[in-house]
Amino acid sequence: MAVRSMRVLLSGRVLRAHQYRTSRHGRARPERSERDARATFACPLLDRRVGREHNLCVMRVTSALLASLLLIPASSLKVFGAAASKPAPKPGVERPPIVGVAHIGLKTDNLAAAREFYGHVLGFEEPFTLDKPGGGLMLTYFKVNDHQYVEIFPDLQSPTEDRLSHIAFETTDAARLRNYLAARGVTVPAEVKPGRDGNLSFMVKDPDGHSVEFVQYLPGSLHSHNFGKFLPDTRISQHIIHVGVTVHDRAAADKFYKDVLDFRVMWYGGMKDDRTDWVDMRVPEGTDWLEYMLNVNNPSPKTLGVMHHLALGVDSVQQSFKTVTERGYKAEPPKIGRDGKWQLNLYDPNLTRVETMEFKPVQTPCCSPMMTGP
Predict the structure, then answer these.
(1) Is residue 90 part of a domain?
(2) 3-state secondary structure 136-150
(3) Is 74 in the same domain as 130?
(4) Structural domain of residue 322, as residue ranges?
(5) Ramachandran area for residue 263 (φ above 0: left; ψ -120 to 50: alpha; else beta)
(6) Does the CA dihedral 124-289-205-158 come out positive or negative?
(7) 141, 126 contact by CB (below 8 A)
């Protein structure tokens, strides 16, 4: 009778699981050696005349193998690769790029004063406005660069009202981002349609109730029609590097911005080394970031204006200070922040803080390393 041999060999992890089974149940017998364990999973492969014996053996091997696998701790299942810990995205709902801050929307009760601040003091031009469907001004735009704006809404109702209307990020595919968020349980509009400005955009709420808009610039829109225009040398800055909002529950905010949208921690710090008051979350496909403003309880209107802010990147804060002073604005002198960067705090007529900040630290940042690469 011709006899060949076939062995079902398991990896070291399964062998260890077999030994783990005997010790886990506290059986008073010696722990099996690797050789003994291998023997448990070996069958002779006979010719077809005695196939029944072979089949019974294979059944025993299969049962033993499954029993061993069930006893492997979840943390030991590395054989399936690192991707096993993160489910693969569902087909058709992969996240499109989120490339940067698109704008911040702010409310005012004094449009003339807002125009003096954003237009004269900061030097931004006002290329276009939008009216309400029933008539009357809905908002006006101050252009920082072709893809970034400060939107001003003249509808602040009281001195105690939050001056923040919304924050916005640019994406390359608004419809696909809407579908991606819907697939992950985020409440989104039923569809994405071009807005009154001609771009595709939609709004969602973050865990703190802030309105977050995602914008895709389309050819022929108010914005793209004015690419390369309204970019005077009077601008104090050419880039919004971040926007800041209050966050009451960092873990909840992380589930939205980090786990769903893939924002990454860039730096965190606080007024003291052992306290975290700010967390910088960088967009996944760009260098701009969102700043969590933590530990803010029952803020006054002035404090809320400090927290809900925008930051303008500059090469020299000292030059910014000189420029705004020459334009008649009285500002406190610049200082180096806890992140090691020079900064200058300015305030619009409704107390919203506009921070000018140098791009790179001049001192070692406190509290944590700062991500600088892609």
Answers:
(1) no
(2) CEEEEEEEEECCEEE
(3) no
(4) 98-358
(5) beta
(6) negative
(7) yes
Lowest mean pLDDT among 50-59, 130-139, 187-196: 50-59
Q: Both 299 and 344 in a single domain?
A: yes
Kindly state whether residue 373 falls inside one of the protein's structural domains. Answer: no
**315 in the same domain as 186:** yes
pLDDT tens digits, one per residue of 285-312:
999 999 999 999 999 999 999 999 999 9
Q: How many domains does the chain have?
A: 2
Structure-token match 């180096």, residue found: 336
CA distances from 332 to 51, 116, 225, 306, 322 (A): 91, 19, 38, 14, 11
Q: Same domain, yes or no, for 136 and 229?
A: yes
DSSP collapsed to 3 states, 324-342: HHHCCCCCCCCEECCCCCE
How far apart, in whole angstroms, are the C-alpha atoms of residue 168 and residue 105?
A: 8
Assigned token pair, 202: 């939609």
| Residue 333 phi, psi (nearest 5) | -60, 155
Confidence of residue 374 (pLDDT cuts 50, 70, 90): low
| Percent of the chain residues topping a pLDDT of 90 | 73
In a domain, 93, yes or no: no
Q: Helix or strand or coil: residue 341?
A: coil
**Same domain flag for 25 and 152:** no
* Cα-to-chain-centroid distance, residue 374: 14
pLDDT at 299: 93
pTM of the model: 0.76
Q: How confident is the model at residue 344 (pLDDT cuts 50, 70, 90)?
A: very high
